[in-house]
């Protein structure tokens, strides 16, 4: 088991990464991608805003910003009051971690039922690293979107259907923090231009959570 896992703080940007246990494929059919995102929205939207993502066969990447402590605590308080459970509120780190754990458990149960498998589907604990500057943030957005090309899923990452990249090229409604991301790049044109430049991502190698 991995040690020295950072606690999840409020109002903080993180690169979140996880993969299937022993490298197992976690998206076994095309419909699994959208199903996973639906569950992600259900469990994670109350505690974090999502800025970019990519789902790839046996792993995924998300770039999130955790919500404020007040928002997270209020959400948990309301949830407990509805279920008549003990009103003792856990730490923000535990609340967010539990949201991810609920996502992984719920999705794994569905996959196990559909594919006649048993046991855990995801590695534990999931990996996270804090993104500490706008420069790293911009490069991480690019890196996450570039992943399908890096792993050979497509020749051009812009053609990959299971990342957030396309959401930044249109005006269609999205739950992503699109305007925040575009503003960080300057505007949509600069966002697209920056993604067109080849990068080795050496400057953010310490923020890339893959083995």
CATH level-4 homologous superfamily: Transposase IS200-like
The number of helical segments is: 6
| Range of strand content | 5-15%
**SS content category:** alpha+beta
**Which percent bin holds the helix content?**
40-55%
* Global Rg: 17 Å
Which blocks of ≥5 consecutive residues have pLDDT under 50? none
The backbone outline, from C-alpha atoms, is globular
- Counted up, domains total 1
Major sheet: 4 strands, antiparallel
Elements, N to C (H/E): EHEEHHEHHH
Labels describing this entry:
globular; Alpha-Beta Plaits; 13% strand; 211 residues; alpha+beta
Task: Summarize the structure in words.
Helices cover 42% and strands 13% of the residues. With 211 residues, it is of the alpha+beta class. α1 packs antiparallel against α3. The longest helix has 24 residues, at 92-115. The model has no long low-confidence stretch (mean pLDDT 92).
Furnish the topology, listing elements before pairings.
Layout: E1 13-19, H1 30-44, E2 48-56, E3 59-66, H2 69-83, H3 92-115, E4 127-130, H4 134-150, H5 178-185, H6 188-196
Antiparallel strand pairs: 1-3, 1-4, 2-3
Helix pairs in contact: 1-3
Q: Can I get a quick summary?
A:
The chain is α+β, with helices and mostly antiparallel strands and 211 residues long. 42% of the residues lie in helices and 13% in strands. The chain has one domain: 2-Layer Sandwich (Alpha-Beta Plaits).
């Amino acid at each position: 088991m991995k040690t020295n896992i950072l606690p999840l703080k409020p109002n903080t940007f993180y690169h979140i990464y996880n993969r299937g246990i022993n490298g197992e494929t976690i998206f076994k059919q095309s419909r699994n991608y959208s199903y996973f995102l639906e569950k992600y929205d259900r469990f994670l939207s109350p505690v974090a805003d999502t800025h970019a993502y990519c789902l790839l066969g046996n792993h995924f990447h998300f770039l999130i910003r955790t919500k404020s402590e007040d928002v997270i605590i209020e959400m948990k308080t309301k949830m407990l009051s509805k279920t008549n459970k003990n009103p003792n509120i856990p730490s923000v780190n535990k609340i967010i971690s539990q949201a991810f754990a609920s996502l992984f458990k719920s999705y794994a149960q569905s996959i196990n039922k559909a594919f006649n498998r048993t046991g855990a589907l995801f590695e534990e604990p999931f990996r996270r690293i804090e993104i500490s500057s706008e420069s790293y943030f911009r490069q991480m957005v690019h890196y996450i979107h570039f992943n399908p090309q890096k792993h050979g899923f497509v020749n051009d990452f812009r053609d990959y259907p299971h990342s957030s990249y396309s959401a930044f090229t249109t005006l269609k409604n999205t739950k992503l923090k699109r305007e925040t991301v575009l503003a960080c790049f300057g505007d949509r044109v600069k966002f697209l231009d920056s993604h067109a430049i080849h990068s080795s991502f050496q400057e953010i190698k310490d923020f890339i959570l893959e083995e």
